[in-house]
Design brief:
single chain, mainly alpha, 2 domains, 11 helices, about 75% helix, about 0% strand
Length: about 300
């Protein structure tokens, strides 16, 4: 995914509301520009790019909704979330297929390779069905309606000059990032609970919110913010790998357990599931250790200082 476009033009002279309007326009355009690539069956990056673009747009709406008395664009977040979910079905299948293809090449046992291919086929079917649903969600008339609703909500926001609670972009940055940082730190104890799937996942999501907020205000915050954004991105990535392995293990466990029940899968699929569970647990441990090392290093670097680890 390409980096989000930075809103740098006249950032020091624009009032916060005008600057926010420009940010929203650019983020929304980034979403719309991904449509054709997302519908191209041969371009799995298109689905991913559009999903991330929606996530960034929703993050801006979420953050600025916290410091306004009324924010009409809040009503669009659910609509964008539904579209992101449709993209997620296709994207998740893409990730599964790619991962299984790579692992199949590493497996030495022919039965395991055959079993992995059978599992991958199921995800190909899921992807095909998901892509058909996505075509409906990204139909020209639906995109036109989304654009119309977005423009109307944005105009309503701009015209309500009194709804904004801060006078400077710097003030907006301080309030939003402070809130996101607190949310992240409130979840950070999860790093010391390696088997708490939900806690680690919530920490990852909070880190994602913090990262997007910092990236939004890079021109205001200065060079130190780039370090914070990069470290948060790394932590988010490691925790994301942990979460992916947890999801895989849960799904594969059901297939492995069914090998002893009435819905017994083919023997090669059960053998593949057990082999894959072992592989994903190895990968999870590696990702968790990286996350823990990054966090404790940051703690050590900032011990005694006024600023928190992230």
């Amino acid at each position: 995914m390409a980096k989000a476009q930075q809103i740098t033009e006249r950032v020091g002279t624009l009032d916060p509301q005008a600057w926010l309007a420009e940010v929203l326009r650019v983020r929304f355009e980034e979403v719309i520009k991904c449509r054709d690539a997302a519908l191209d069956p041969a371009r799995i990056d298109g689905v991913h790019d559009m999903r991330v673009a929606i996530r960034r747009l929703r993050s801006v709406i979420r953050d600025f909704g916290e410091i306004t008395d009324k924010f009409p664009l809040k009503n669009l977040r659910k609509r964008l979330k539904r579209l992101a979910d449709s993209l997620g079905v296709v994207r998740d299948a893409d990730v599964c297929i790619t991962t299984l293809e790579k692992l199949s090449a590493e497996a030495e046992d022919e039965a395991i390779r055959t079993g992995i291919e059978s599992i991958a086929f199921e995800y190909r079917v899921t992807r095909a069905a998901g892509l058909e649903e996505l075509k409906v969600d990204l139909a020209p008339e639906r995109i036109a309606d989304l654009e119309s609703r977005f423009d109307a909500a944005l105009c309503e926001s701009i015209n309500q000059r009194g709804l904004y609670q801060v006078a400077r972009i710097e003030d907006a940055a301080e309030r939003i990032i402070s809130k996101c940082r607190k949310e992240f730190l409130d979840q950070s104890e999860a790093i010391y609970y390696p088997h708490s799937i939900q806690r680690l996942h919530r920490m990852r999501i909070a880190g994602k919110h913090l990262r997007y907020a910092v990236e939004l205000f890079l021109e205001v915050l200065g060079p130190d913010a780039e370090v914070l954004a990069e470290e948060t991105k790394k932590m988010q990535g490691y925790l994301g790998d942990v979460h992916d392995c947890d999801v895989w293990t849960t799904q594969l466990r059901d297939r492995a357990l069914n090998g002893k029940g009435k819905n017994e899968p083919p023997a090669n699929e059960r053998k593949a599931a057990i082999w894959l569970m072992s592989e994903f647990q190895r990968r999870r441990t590696k990702a968790y250790r990286k996350a823990l090392a990054l966090w404790t290093k940051r703690e050590a670097d900032t011990r005694g200082a006024s600023r928190p680890p992230c």
